[in-house]
Structure formats: structure tokens, C-alpha cells
From TrEMBL:
One of its GO terms (biological process) is putrescine biosynthetic process from arginine. This is Amidohydrolase. Keywords: Hydrolase. Pfam families: CN_hydrolase. GO terms for molecular function: N-carbamoylputrescine amidase activity. It comes from Pseudomonas oryzihabitans. InterPro entries: Aliph_Amidase/BUP, C-N_Hydrolase, C-N_Hydrolase_sf. Residues 6-239 form the CN hydrolase domain. PROSITE patterns: CN_HYDROLASE (PS50263).
Amino acid sequence: MSAASLTLAAAQSASVAGDLASNLRTHLAFIAAAAESGVDLLLFPELSLTGYEPTLAAELALEPTDLRLQSLRDACREARLTAIVGAPVHGPAGLHIGALILGADGSCQVHTKQYLHPGESPPFTAGTGGDLLNIRGLNGALAICADSNHRAHATAARAQGADVYLVSAVIGATGYAADSAHLAAHAREQGFPVLLANHGAPTGGYTCVGRSAFWLADGQCLAAAPGAGELLLIARLEGTTWQGEPRPLLR
């Protein structure tokens, strides 16, 4: 890890089922708040732009060139930050749970979920992941929810050169204890920090608990949201020291 000063943030957002226009406004509010906090990379939850709605996914799928994304791309470029937002995407193998990586340079790349939960196929098919993200000298590996339940995924990320593991998720009350234990274990075993962005409100039938968090490379939880609701979970690196805190979203 070569970045001397870097700020990551999880956007613990609330999505309205199938309402792209409303969710775009929410994302813009988070990007504006992140810019005020000097964030370099902003991570949203799984399927944040549409909500976790498998039955609506095919009609809600987005392409990188979709003009409806232009406001987000412009906001990221103006704020000079990278945002990772969630949406269904079409690929050669079918419909995927995807993440759109909106770069500070105005670019848009696609990452797809590799490991599906039971019940996600159909309508979704397993994807192929994506490249590491380089943010000011730090290499980030993206995991979309169930990806992070597989030790092999975190191990492969570290082998590829990841310095931090970025987890975009939908986690309810019954799953949080096990899922957070997996993330702490990945941090310890792979020797990299882990950032989790979880939904801050119910979506797709899941009563998401929020509790977005950041684990240090020894598995210690440095900072976590106290519960549900919309907020930013900030993790700031100065030299070799991380500091973290949750910040309410004011809008």
C-alpha cells in the first residue's frame, strides 16, 4: 500500500424498489456529502440503484453508456472521487448482479458478482468479477455480497495484489453475525483492511440492519455504524494509521 493519505467511505443508503430516479437523487446526495469529507472512494451497497429486487432486475438493467447515469458520472468527476454503485447488468452469459465503477476521470467500468446466493439464479447468472481498482496508489478488490462468504474469493484478491477488500452487500438481521465474522477473518488471514457497505433500510424482503463497518488488517473493527439509517462510514488513512467514524447524512 503506497498511499500516504487516502479516504474511503461506505454509503449506507436506502433504496426505493425499482425507482431509479429517486435512487439517483439519493446517490447524488451521498456523493456531495462524500466530497465535503474529502472521500477518494465511495462504496454503495449491492444493487443500490434499483434495490435488491430480482423480479424487476431484467427491466431495470443498466449499461455503462446509459444516459441516466450521466448525472452520477458528472458528480464523480467534479468531486474527483470514484463511486461504486450497484445495478443489474447484461453480459454475454445473461443477467448479472453488477457494480458500476464511476471513476473520478468520468469513466465507467463494470464488475459482476461471481458467487450467487441460493435463489438468485434465476434470474441472475454468475459473473466474472473484474479488475482491481487503483485509487491513489491503493489497490482495491471488490466483492459483491456472497462473494465475500467464500474464502477463495478473498484469497484470490490478495494474490492479485489487493491492499483493501471492498464489500458491497445486502445483509439482514439473521445474517449479520456470520457475515461480519467472515469479513473480520478475511482481514486477519489476508492482512488487508475490509470495508463493508450495507443497506440502511429494508430492501427485497430483507430487513437490512445497516452496521456498515471497517476492519483493520488484524481483524479489529475500527469503526461501524450503530444500526440502520442513512450515513457515511468514513475510513481515513494518514501515513500508516487508519482512523474511522460514522457520519450522519444531512440532506
